[in-house]
């Protein structure tokens, strides 16, 4: 049967013959035993081959059972395509080598009593991946292998930690029918699970299905140290430790160097106790040397047979090679590869290598013992390989090609290297083939990605102390710059419009064959250039010196190729690369004439990031059309715009200071900056759905979930990142409990969930982390009492309380807490007693006590509200605030750094400082935000900005370079440089939304800003004002019926006749020629919206508490609690009142007898002439797309323009956007 299964027949015949021979009497007993052992090994290998074939058939049969629909779902999932062992490109162990190690691992895989995790720990070059490949092959042959992931820093997907669990899940689904029956529906309903936290990925994709179906696979993860991971302890290992006990049937085999994060990961208590560890570099040297000798003997015997070499190599030569290998298999492999080449004479090549002097050297950062000559081996091979290259004139090309090969962000093929460097592929391919013994290299395939066989070759080439021959030394800054300029030149030569041949108007997600189009029309070299030119340009200190060389290249690229480059990044899903590139370019070109252009490009990409990411065609249909009229981009590329609509009125004239904005699906209640300035966390009022946003684009990176038992149980109180930005802690409260949830940001998993019973102290807490990120201090205040609690973040243990107003234990005097912060190993707190500012401290250790540090003297403190900000120098900045003024006192120099009078008329003026206290912002509700920065004379006004809607809260980044403001559904981002300034003191300002209605008898619209008293009639052809009416009152709403303009003000409805645009200014005319005064039963409290029915009989007004209905005919009034948010309107042609928020509408039929209970609808059931639909069938989706009646994507609205459905008005082809953050209402005409 074995013969029929395709097993090597010669091997079977040989085994059969040797079995017959062994039946003869054994003359030499010891030799007979050796023969038996060797025969058993061959028999085992043959059976293993058979099992592999059998399992391959089973795998193929299972794969054939996958339906086309299931295959489409799995193929569309985001995972690493060639990460499993069959695609790793590695060979297994040579027969007879590593047997002790492999036998131990095989025993572990088969013994249920063994721990579920096995760590193969080894230094670089000790053969971990070769062993992992062999283990994978053997476990696969036995039918135990569920999935494998061979990590590699050379491939973007195989070094992406976020793809490990999705990739393992897809492989498990292809092997196990039950697993597939779970995964396919999950992915179909929630394809974004691949982008969720590692915690959610592991739980949803691996743990739940394995447990549900009692599947017991072996899962292999090789070279985990080659995955990008910024955690102190490996994020994957942290997650594995949290879940491995919950999937007892599964076993995980992991290999990795003993780097700190891998070592710390396996030391985690939850993982250490369930892990077997085998240290390869601690294996007895004689055993490793014997395996290396076997490897040399086998490879050289095969080479001697093929090349007819007699008595080669000699025993002395083998001894010397084994000695120089020093226990490193990488040395042995590199030696064989350098000798076994068709173009070399093996005898001569071996002699040359052995003539190299011995040396003690190091590999990477690890010094190896013994006479290891890895560096000399590399040097000797390079010198021999390029000995015939035409003189030193070709050395620059040699270095350029080697530099491109080792410094590329991901492996490049010879053809791609040639295109990027502007060389002939026929020169690059032969040059790389000369050193193929150091490379993973495919003969005769110029498009095969090439990479170093081992990281030690990369380390050798870039280290001048190791690569002492300057012909081959690669100086990274020089070659990074060369690669960057090469990429820019390649894009300049080859980029073209709509390279993927996408239809007009589509979103990228609409194109089902987008990946095939990318492969067909955008070659790998151009893809690489578009993704990576900036990563080379800004690598290393030499870039600033080369700035004059690249300025002209950059300017030409931005002036000619910007939009074409963005097209490619859009379809590649890599628009964030453009943000990073342009941000770096702005910094590099700060003193250059090209700065304004680079800055404008950066504003374009950040301002329209969502549009560019969602649709390559809408770069021209939407982003370029909405671009400010005076922007450089608009002027350079205006002929490229392809609008599906006409902007009638309101396109911004210039960029404002708002860099980016995003609309969240829920009102934002809390926000916090990370300590590293890279992330922003947001939280709603309750529910603990905390989102982590990218601080450059405001795009959501992940959503953190609390334990199910704690959902919706508390009001959000505080958000804080740990000092290293690896953890995020949320603190909330209810009437009797304090809730503290901490997440690991790399994994997304809950580190600890603390519920602390506390009946008395339930005001908003202040929170601070200890400097090591292991503990937090939380302070609570109520009236004149307060308490401070210390918690261990990882264990969730409540360490102790220190509070005022208790008997016994640790306590502080009374007073109010001003601030809580961390100082060295201490938690510090400032209180108002016994002196107005008293500083206390306590160690972050169990059962510590507070001690008095100092009392601060501040002049003129009496009757002032106090804000205290510590500085890194252990001094303080004290803000003294009174009505109409504030001042800032520096305790270090004992002087005022700022005295600001006439600052505000409100007592609610607030302040927040940067982490070094060199910057702070001041603001008041409804006013502009002011940014102050420290100079030699004190704080001076650095800039001001509009904070957005009323009640928004600004936050300064720790480095003082950025500021966010959140309020309602919106979050906005500014950079503090280049903000407008004024020498005057702050002036209150209102950003009220606009109110608008269309005049049906002609192409006109009537508009005003809410609470303003001036009405403007706009011509919809020209966009210019035709008539201005001063109403003399604050306007809350208006309605145009026929030629009558009805204005809703507080207490009355006033109408004007707009017929012919000839009404006398201010003439009041009602339907019967009079003004109608209305009196509401309850006083109006901050009117949000108002509407009038088409028959002029009813008026509806919504304030922050209620919706009021008033019958203008008989004066009857009905009030009901506010059902939904700001939007309300009457349907055309009847008296149904509609109310709306972001995702729901309510209809309320009105009659003379009153009204019925509002009926809720999903937004897809909203009527025409609502904020979502026009009477002609145009539609606005919740994600900002404006669709034609046929469903074509006409426009994508930027986030600030779509944040609130109540601020949209349709009229036929016209759409008005009425957001108060805009300088003018935007009116768009979609008429074909």
Automatic annotation (TrEMBL):
Pfam families: NPHP3_N. Keywords: Repeat. Coiled coil: none annotated. InterPro entries: NACHT_NTPase, NPHP3-like_N, P-loop_NTPase, Quinoprot_gluc/sorb_DH_b-prop, WD40/YVTN_repeat-like_dom_sf. The keyword Repeat applies. Residues 116-258 form the NACHT domain. This is NACHT domain-containing protein. It comes from Thelephora terrestris.
